[in-house]
């Protein structure tokens, strides 16, 4: 299937974002974004792609552009999505945790597309506005500075369901995929205006574990034999772990609260990773349904298709599952783009992040790009132009920023990723030691070389502080957490002790409830 350079000229016009002129006679491309949840971006290229068969990701690689170094701007659902939908870094959206996102009336890139003549349609998981997720999720985030250590998740485990004919394991995702496919086949095909379609998937996020307490922490990797057969067990890498005593203090807190500090056999770890990869294969099949319906209706040749994820999944790397970490498994996301005019079979090594989607989509639609965005348009690179050749806001910076302020991590975290280095600063930059990884020599991030390269640390920290005054932001988050907790506690009145004891940490809390309540009182 050749997508060809058909609309290349009109797309080049888009990079200049000129006022509406003669180019208006060309039709603008349709835009489809499929965003899943928790897919490790390293599975889209070698050697990660040796572990599982992802035929539709591979299709997009052949017919489009693959970004080898794409990152989330905050490795947790709501803050990441708030950044993607707003084009702004997390310290600007103030989406500090899964409970705090954008205001419901915030103007997203899709709202701007609609305002400029696009027909817009959304299906599935959005999760970029405030007020969602469990009580446990927000209370764990608010109390991360309290002097206690409690397991907040179920122990990661696997579960096999159905037989070799059981394809639709994640039924809710298949239902929204079916709706999106029906919309393409029955509605989109008849539109006289360009359209923008968003499909949000829950997979490959782990499933709830009912024994893990209030609203069930999600620690179960669930799949069927049908999907497990897509995984190459021999290619699964068993991650190297530091001893608990050698772990960075924030990593130890994360591993403990995620219930990962106990003993795990190699077979357990291999199975968790295999089941996770199988869940990624099921996700790929849903992407495939969208691509197939666009191809069958003849819309593919005039549609830009993008595929990404809100963050990755550690799948037992660094003795953790889930995300909330700046390690590659958690922070590296897939980003593939194909469509008319997009360079085919292109791999881009430039560091990019999810805030770049907002200006890119506007650029594709030839809508003026607001000047206040944190992101930069990817369009010059998608068209195979020299990096930074055409930009409204000067050259693209040689770094990306990610930050984290939520649960399972006991310090605000800031990551600056450049071509070679990953620098991670914490809290006020003094009370918690930083981390520095040389990703060219140490892709598995096993050796913190911050003490070995103090000049590099100093220069990266200086860049980081020029982007965000991180000690000040960390202090603001601490104040916010305390205010929110006090308001929540007061709202419960006499019920406070009973409610707080039975959140996701109930198994540990109920052993010594007075001790933990006293720790909170001391913090307050």
Automatic annotation (TrEMBL):
<protein>
    <recommendedName>
        <fullName>Arylsulfatase K</fullName>
        <ecNumber>3.1.6.1</ecNumber>
        <ecNumber>3.1.6.18</ecNumber>
    </recommendedName>
</protein>
<keyword id="KW-0479">Metal-binding</keyword>
<feature type="signal peptide">
    <location>
        <begin position="1"/>
        <end position="18"/>
    </location>
</feature>
<dbReference type="GO" id="GO:0015024">
    <property type="term" value="F:glucuronate-2-sulfatase activity"/>
</dbReference>
<dbReference type="InterPro" id="IPR051849">
    <property type="entry name" value="GAG-degrading_sulfatase"/>
</dbReference>
<feature type="domain" description="Sulfatase N-terminal">
    <location>
        <begin position="29"/>
        <end position="366"/>
    </location>
</feature>
<dbReference type="InterPro" id="IPR000917">
    <property type="entry name" value="Sulfatase_N"/>
</dbReference>
<keyword id="KW-0458">Lysosome</keyword>
<keyword id="KW-0325">Glycoprotein</keyword>
<dbReference type="GO" id="GO:0046872">
    <property type="term" value="F:metal ion binding"/>
</dbReference>
<dbReference type="Pfam" id="PF00884">
    <property type="entry name" value="Sulfatase"/>
</dbReference>
<dbReference type="InterPro" id="IPR047892">
    <property type="entry name" value="ARSK"/>
</dbReference>
<comment type="function">
    <text>Catalyzes the hydrolysis of pseudosubstrates such as p-nitrocatechol sulfate and p-nitrophenyl sulfate. Catalyzes the hydrolysis of the 2-sulfate groups of the 2-O-sulfo-D-glucuronate residues of chondroitin sulfate, heparin and heparitin sulfate. Acts selectively on 2-sulfoglucuronate and lacks activity against 2-sulfoiduronate.</text>
</comment>
<keyword id="KW-0106">Calcium</keyword>
<dbReference type="GO" id="GO:0005764">
    <property type="term" value="C:lysosome"/>
</dbReference>
<keyword id="KW-0732">Signal</keyword>
<dbReference type="InterPro" id="IPR017850">
    <property type="entry name" value="Alkaline_phosphatase_core_sf"/>
</dbReference>
<keyword id="KW-0378">Hydrolase</keyword>
<dbReference type="GO" id="GO:0005576">
    <property type="term" value="C:extracellular region"/>
</dbReference>
<keyword id="KW-0964">Secreted</keyword>
<dbReference type="GO" id="GO:0004065">
    <property type="term" value="F:arylsulfatase activity"/>
</dbReference>
<comment type="similarity">
    <text>Belongs to the sulfatase family.</text>
</comment>
